[in-house]
């Protein structure tokens, strides 16, 4: 069969057949009297084998080795192709993600595009300094892909870099709030903690709602960060967790400060005092915890807190009684 007929029947162009021949992949078995290439049935079968292996992504030179080496293992070939394909897919997905993020930043011109690319590359750098500079560059009107910024916030382990990233995210508007909320669903407590810390610096009611969602979190640190942030925002839902933090000695000073902010509302002040007193009376509350809880009553105004301190001044635990008496004197002085 002449080359033109082979090309028509196989779908492989004559030019490609000549290329195969130049690589030694398939050589016509004969020539006509006029010198034209003549392919045998075996030659044509080999062409179809070549095309089949090409469809799997195997390079032409590897195809020749696969067809000519009797000891070549097909399983090894397929395994390599699977690995290479996965690598290509991962690279393409990474490229797609980068393009989506650049598009979301709404670049106005090529300068914006190039700045966004440089920003993304710096965020992914192994250098903490480079990542921090990228976060701070958002103050220079660089188009910031918010999705990439959130991803960086949720994975960052360097405290200084993490702080810069949270600052940059807070400046970017409220677009990152919903993405941070997804971080609250992570199986990793560290990721949830980073999400809450970032939400604490985000403005607006949407961030406050997401912080409320974090209050029942099984991890104490996550609950604590959420409660402290909500306390400074005047959200009374944080009171039970803040009282728990004081009793357990976890960031108890910050928790007491947050309670004092909440206590500016008379209703909240009464609720705080009642909960502190209830925790003081609990059988499982140890002596150090009872002292901390008594100290927390210092900045809680109102008759409920004053009455509790009066009663505690006669407590059987001398440290609690002395603390209560001292706090009563301070209240009388004011």
UniProtKB/TrEMBL annotation:
UniProt keyword annotation of DNA-binding present: yes
InterPro entries: ARM-like, ARM-type_fold, DNA-bd_dom_put_sf, MerR-type_HTH_dom, MerR_fam, PBS_lyase_HEAT
Residue ranges occupied by any HTH merR-type domain in the UniProt entry: 1-69
SUPFAM superfamilies: ARM repeat, Putative DNA-binding domain
Keyword DNA-binding part of the UniProt annotation: yes
Gene3D superfamilies in alphabetical order: 1.10.1660.10, Leucine-rich Repeat Variant (1.25.10.10)
Pfam families, alphabetized: HEAT_2, MerR_1
Keywords noted in UniProt: DNA-binding
SMART domains: EZ_HEAT (SM00567), HTH_MERR (SM00422)
Protein known as: MerR family transcriptional regulator
Species name: Marinactinospora rubrisoli
